[in-house]
């Protein structure tokens, strides 16, 4: 645990797991401009971490490898953590609950704007943490509405369990029997514009995400299924950022079972046979690209 959160000065902590798009199919576009997506999503055991404690006045602090990249705009309202705090406080007051001042500390371990839902995961963890700290009892549909207002990925991150998401991300089906996979996350630490990736899509009416007539069972069947899926954003992201092709090739060369880009990039993941193989692969990747981000972790299994 980060030294700041390890001191025990915070009343509670909340994990913000990275969101991994194992598949992302762009199936259409609404009249309001939002793209329709079918996504197979899992979450990793590695992510950001937030600490919460009662305070005389609202405070927000940062640490972690990527914390300095957020500090410039955090207090200017550019941080989803603060937006989540403020929206939940408004809802609490409207429902007759106290929502007193709080010090929130964000340990930022995930790269910024990297296609693995870091900001959305932080917002979702803020909602979960403050619900506990403030002892709020609000209707589930109210929390879901706040989450969606914060961003299309936040409802998924609120669940932080394997799922299929459709629409703009609000129609969620949990996958309780989904297995865990050892993975490597890699990122060249270059920014990729999500709007530009969508603008450069060759087509926006791709085939939907379909499963076999019987849902896959177990590790092997899910691997076969994932192999046959795709990320429709990957070709346009690769054309914008050549490092994505390099990164994907490097991971694939480490004998990954499946290699794919997550979200709109630039993070790519590789699924490996076991965690030891993943650790050896990550060590090799770090030797080849010491300035890039590589993280060994495991996806979170379903509840079954």
UniProtKB/TrEMBL annotation:
<dbReference type="InterPro" id="IPR020568">
    <property type="entry name" value="Ribosomal_Su5_D2-typ_SF"/>
</dbReference>
<dbReference type="InterPro" id="IPR006204">
    <property type="entry name" value="GHMP_kinase_N_dom"/>
</dbReference>
<feature type="active site">
    <location>
        <position position="153"/>
    </location>
</feature>
<keyword id="KW-0067">ATP-binding</keyword>
<keyword id="KW-0808">Transferase</keyword>
<keyword id="KW-0418">Kinase</keyword>
<feature type="active site">
    <location>
        <position position="19"/>
    </location>
</feature>
<dbReference type="GO" id="GO:0016114">
    <property type="term" value="P:terpenoid biosynthetic process"/>
</dbReference>
<protein>
    <recommendedName>
        <fullName>4-diphosphocytidyl-2-C-methyl-D-erythritol kinase</fullName>
        <ecNumber>2.7.1.148</ecNumber>
    </recommendedName>
</protein>
<dbReference type="GO" id="GO:0005524">
    <property type="term" value="F:ATP binding"/>
</dbReference>
<dbReference type="GO" id="GO:0050515">
    <property type="term" value="F:4-(cytidine 5'-diphospho)-2-C-methyl-D-erythritol kinase activity"/>
</dbReference>
<comment type="function">
    <text>Catalyzes the phosphorylation of the position 2 hydroxy group of 4-diphosphocytidyl-2C-methyl-D-erythritol.</text>
</comment>
<dbReference type="InterPro" id="IPR014721">
    <property type="entry name" value="Ribsml_uS5_D2-typ_fold_subgr"/>
</dbReference>
<feature type="binding site">
    <location>
        <begin position="111"/>
        <end position="121"/>
    </location>
    <ligand>
        <name>ATP</name>
    </ligand>
</feature>
<dbReference type="InterPro" id="IPR004424">
    <property type="entry name" value="IspE"/>
</dbReference>
<dbReference type="Pfam" id="PF00288">
    <property type="entry name" value="GHMP_kinases_N"/>
</dbReference>
<comment type="similarity">
    <text>Belongs to the GHMP kinase family. IspE subfamily.</text>
</comment>
<keyword id="KW-0414">Isoprene biosynthesis</keyword>
<dbReference type="InterPro" id="IPR013750">
    <property type="entry name" value="GHMP_kinase_C_dom"/>
</dbReference>
<keyword id="KW-0547">Nucleotide-binding</keyword>
<feature type="domain" description="GHMP kinase N-terminal">
    <location>
        <begin position="79"/>
        <end position="159"/>
    </location>
</feature>
<dbReference type="GO" id="GO:0019288">
    <property type="term" value="P:isopentenyl diphosphate biosynthetic process, methylerythritol 4-phosphate pathway"/>
</dbReference>
<comment type="pathway">
    <text>Isoprenoid biosynthesis; isopentenyl diphosphate biosynthesis via DXP pathway; isopentenyl diphosphate from 1-deoxy-D-xylulose 5-phosphate: step 3/6.</text>
</comment>
<feature type="domain" description="GHMP kinase C-terminal">
    <location>
        <begin position="229"/>
        <end position="288"/>
    </location>
</feature>
<dbReference type="Pfam" id="PF08544">
    <property type="entry name" value="GHMP_kinases_C"/>
</dbReference>
<dbReference type="InterPro" id="IPR036554">
    <property type="entry name" value="GHMP_kinase_C_sf"/>
</dbReference>
